[in-house]
Design brief:
cytoplasm; disordered N terminus; Acyl_CoA_acyltransferase; seven-stranded mixed sheet; Aminopeptidase; 155 residues; alpha+beta
């Protein structure tokens, strides 16, 4: 990670003005299954279930996460950190933030992750997500997805 002596990390709701920067990270992260610009605009402007967040360092957006909340269930739709800032705990911080956000109304959270994406699976497992099944040929390139779940209630 670049040295940034006087800048602090901030997590906030994503705005329309953030979409172009988020889209750059999306394309850098997901070459075979990236979301379109239109998809991000639709999520922010028209999807009543969508909640999107960005993490920034100073003025620079370095990560984002989207979730859908339907009644008491949350689903992570997309999450990524700029490759220059990975392996610094930023993805974990962002994930824990959205889990906390969703826990005010939701009992569980789920996601799909590429079977081969060991780094992402490690982040999810560290946050308490467990294996829930496989979605065959889930991604456009034919790769399977591992479904993972976590309880958001401390019983």
């Amino acid at each position: 990670m670049e040295k940034q002596s006087n800048k602090a990390l901030e997590i906030r709701k994503m705005s329309i003005e953030d979409v172009q920067e988020v889209y750059k990270i999306e394309n850098q992260s997901f070459t075979n299954s990236s979301w379109s610009l239109e998809a991000f605009y639709h999520e922010l402007e028209k999807n009543e279930f969508a909640h999107y967040f960005v993490v920034s360092l100073g003025e620079k957006i370095i990560g984002y996460c989207g979730i859908w909340i339907v009644i008491d269930q949350a689903q992570i739709t997309t999450i990524s950190v700029d490759e220059s800032y990975r392996s610094n705990g930023i993805g974990q911080l962002l994930l824990e933030y959205v889990m906390n956000y969703a826990s005010t109304t939701c009992t569980t959270m789920s996601l799909e992750v590429r079977i081969e994406n060991k780094a992402a699976r490690h982040v999810y497992e560290k946050a308490g997500f467990t294996y829930g099944g496989v979605r065959k040929n889930y991604y456009g390139d034919g790769e399977d997805a591992k479904v993972m779940w976590v309880s958001l209630k401390n019983d």
